[in-house]
Amino acid sequence: MRRTTVLILLLSALSFFVGLGRPAIGDSDEAFYAEAGREMVASGDWLTPHYNYVHRFQKPILFYWLVAGTYVVAGVGEAAARVWSAAAGLGIALLTAACARAWYDERTARLAGTVVATSFGYFSIGRLSLPDLPLAFFITLTTWTALRGLLDEVGRPGRWLLASGIAAGLGFLTKGPVAFVIPALVVLPAWLVEWGRTRLPVRELAVAALVASLVAAPWYVAMAQVHGQAYVEGFFIGDNVDRFATSRYNDPRPLWFYVPIVAGGMLPWTPLLVCALSPLLAWMRRRERPQLATLRLAIWAALPFLFFTASIGKQPRYVLPLLPPLAVLLALSVWRRVDEGTSRGGRRDPVMMTAGLLTGLLLVVLGALIYRAMPLIVMVNPQLVVLGSALIALAGVGTIGAALTVRPERLPWVIAIAAAASLVGLQYGLSPAGRDPVQNMAALVLKHRQGDEPVATYRVFVRNLIFYTHLRQSDLPSDEALRQYLRGPDRVLCVITADELAKIKEGGAVSVRTLAEVLYFNASAVKLRTLLSPDPSRDLERVLLITNR
User: Are 422 and 518 in the same domain?
Assistant: First the structure.
C-alpha cells in the first residue's frame, strides 16, 4: 500500500470516523435522512421515502437506502446514520490523491489528499447524515474518470467512461440532475480546449450514457408509476428547478456568497492559497502557459463555482464538489513555491512563513473562542471543553513556531498535523455523548405521554425530536395554530421554548402546565457576539415540555 494512501486513511479516520456517533442527530436537514431511513426499515417500504410517516419526495432514494441498510446491519443510531457521509469524505480524499498522482506526481498527490482529509468544510459535513458529501464523491468520480477517458486514455477510453457512467447514475440516484450537470460543465469545455489532439469516442460515450440510465432510471420510473404526476412535479420541478431558480427553499443570497464559504471550507489551509497568486498572475499576463492538467483543474473549479453563484437558492454545502480541484491546485502551488525557493538557495520563504503564521493564529483564536464559550456548552463535560480548546490552541502555537523555524517544505506537514489535532479537539470539545438536550427531551416526552396523546413542536426540535421518540408529531406553523392546538378538548403535549411560550401567553389566554424543561444551546444561531461575550442567560434557551391539561 502506498504511503500516501496510508496517510490519508489515518487522517480520514481522525477527521471523519472517530467519535462519529457522539453528537445527537441535529435539528437540521440531517434529521430528515436519519429518520427517513429508520422509517424505511420500520415500515418495510423500500421504494418511497417517508418522514414523520408521510411521503418525502424531496430527494432520490440512494442515500435513504444506504442509511436504512446500515440500520439493518448495525442497528439504528447516530454513527450508522452518518457512516456513508464519512466514507464519502474518505473516498474524495483518495480520489483527489489519485487525480494529482495521475496528472502530476506523488508529492502533489500526498498533499492534495491531505488537504481534503483535514479541511474544516469536509469535516463538518462528513459528520452529518446528509447526501451532499456522497453526491460530491460521485460528481468527483464522474468528472475525473470522464476526463481521463476523453483526454488521457484516448486509445482505450472504454473502462474510464464506463466508470463515469456508473458514477453519474449513482449520483443521479443520490440527488438528481445536478450529478449530470456539474460534470458536463467541466468535461465539455475541457474537451473543447484540447479538441485538436483528441477524438470523440462516440460509441463508448453512448455505452456510458446507457449504463447511467440503467443505474438511475428504474427507481424514478417506479416512483412515477406509483405516485404519478405528484412525484414528477414535486421532485423534478419543485426540488430541482425551483431550488436553483427561486427562493422557495433558500433565502436569496448575494453573488459573493460562496467566496467566504469556499475560503472557510478550506481552512486551515486557506492561507496557503497565497502561493497560487504568483502563477495566476503569470498566466493572466501571458508570461507563462499553464499545463493542460492545470487548465483542466482551473476549469473544474471555476465553472461549477460560477454555476452555483448564478443560482438563486444558495446553500453552503452545495459547493462541496469544488474542493478536490482546489486542493490539487493548492498542493501544486505550494510545491512550486518550495521548489522556486530551493533553487534560489533560500532557507526562508516570507510568503510561506506568513501563511503559516496566519494559520497558527487562526487556530489559537479558535481555541480561545471555544474556551470562552464554555458556559454555553452545557451538554459537554467542562473538562473535555478545556482539553479540546487547549489542543486546538496548542496546534496553533506549534504551527506558529514551525512557520518561524522549519524549512518551507516541512511546513505543510506541520499544518496537516495541526489540522488533524484541531479536528479531534473540535469533535470532543463540542460534541456530547448521549447527553444532548433533544435526547433528554425525547425521554421526557415518552415519560409524560399518556396513551395516544398528540405531540407537537413549535420552532424548536422540529425535525430531530421524532428520531428519538419514534412518534408522529405536528410541526405547528404559527402562533394561532399553536393556540388552537392547546385549546382543544383533549390533552396534548407540546415542545416549545420559554420565550415563545411567553409570547403566546401575551397574545391571548392560554392555559398550560409545564411538565419539564432542558437547557439548549442552539449552535445554528451562534453569532460572533455569542463567542466574544457569552451570556448563559441570553444565549441558552429553556426548552419546555408543556401540556394543556
Answer: no
